[in-house]
Each structure stands twice: as structure tokens, then as C-alpha cells.
Amino acid sequence: MTLKFTLSALEARVIGCLIEKQITTPDQYPLSINALANACNQKSNRDPLLNLAEAEVQQLVDGLVRKHVMIERSGFGSRVAKYQHCFCNTEFSGLKFSLQELAIVCELLVRGPQTPGELRTRAARMTPFADANEVQYALEALANRPEGALVVQLPREPGRRDSRYLQLFTGPPAAQLLAPAPAPTSHSNTAAADYAPATASSDLDTRLTQLELAVSELRTQLEQLRGEVAARD
Which residues contact 27 (CB under 8 A, 6 or more apart)? Predict the structure, then answer.
């Protein structure tokens, strides 16, 4: 990994939202805490859906500023603090991506694991992809960077034609995501797999991600409490 630290799931959502808004709505970038909270809680282009309070987003931003991947960039005379990322493609970061790689990284940060086909469709709002080969080329470039992989291909799930890819900025994938799918043991199992697993797997992934986000949020709050206790001492 090129980062000297690991992002929490919620921090990844914040960074992904900043990258997205920088590309799609540059006139409204940098973002205030209110705008960033709205972006994190957006009902479209997000998985899982969140309902973060502005105070929670401020805590996440403060942590990311301390990690030197976000900076305050308020305009002259502005009464509202606004923030931008320095996570990648800036003079402050060693992470440099092509436009297509950046769009893919952004989608993986805000929506979790996705197939190349899903990424091509969803990342097109940020930069065009001529065909599926361009998506695959960008994914392979991210997976084979000399300094370390930034994405990993997951085992193909039952009911899916293609494997999904996962970003590694939040650390290595959970063991259950890397476990190979069990082979069907009977004709009835095979027939059932043609219809049900995609939905069941999706539900399980959503619940797992929500659990990881909740744990990450608790860790963030614990770190803040530790900092406050240390400051009093």
C-alpha cells in the first residue's frame, strides 16, 4: 500500500464523496460540513445508505485532516469552513491516478465491491470508458502498482457472471469475501442457485458493510475520546 495508514469505512465514504463532487460539481467544491454530510447520506450512487449527523462528519473530517489527506480551503471572507481532499492527484500526495483509475477508485469508495460492468456504467458519469477493456485495463493497473495493490479481485459469487473488485484503502478484505464459493451438491441446489443467491448475497454484503461501518464509527468515537482524555492529562 502507498498509504501509511488505513482508512475506516466511514473515512473512505468521506474521501470518495469529495473526489466525486470535485469531478461532477466543481463549481460547488470544496464542500462545507453540511454539503459533505448530504453527499455522504445521498440516496443515489451510495451503498450502503447512511444517515450521518453533521457532528459525526466533522469528527471524521478532523481525523482526516490530522492524517493529512484533507485540508480546509475556505474562500476569502467565507464564514463557513470548506474542505477538500489531498488524498490523490495533488502536490501533497504520492498517489497519482489517470482519470479512469480515479473514477473507479471513487466508485469503489462510495459503493463498495463492484464488477467491471457495474463500474463502467457507474463511473461513466465522471469519465467515459470506450469499452469493457478500458475498465479491465484500469483495474489491472490499480491491482498491479509497483508500490502495492490498491484493488483486489474477489472470487466470483454464485449467480454472478463476473467477479467483483474491492478497494484496499480500508485494509485487506474480510476472510468471508475471499472464500471460494461452495460447489453445488445436487441438481436442485444448482437450480436454486440460478435464481436466489444473487439477491441473498447482495443482502448479506449490505448487512456486512453496515456492520463494518458501525464498528468503524465506534472506533472513530473511541479515538476521539482517547484524544480528549490525553489532552486533559
Answer: none
Q: Are 208 and 174 in contact (CB under 8 A)?
A: yes
Which cell numbers in the block locate residue 182? 461452495
Measured distance CA(129)–CA(133) in Å, rounded: 9
What is the arithmetic mean of pLDDT over 100-125? 97
What are the DSSP calls for 121-148, one per residue?
HHHTTTS--SSHHHHHHHHHHHHT-TT-
Query: Domains in the chain and their CATH numbers?
Result: 9-222 (1.10.10.10)
Q: Which residues contact 194 (CB under 8 A, 6 or more apart)?
A: 159
pLDDT in tens, 32-51: 999 999 999 999 999 999 99
Amino acid at 76: F
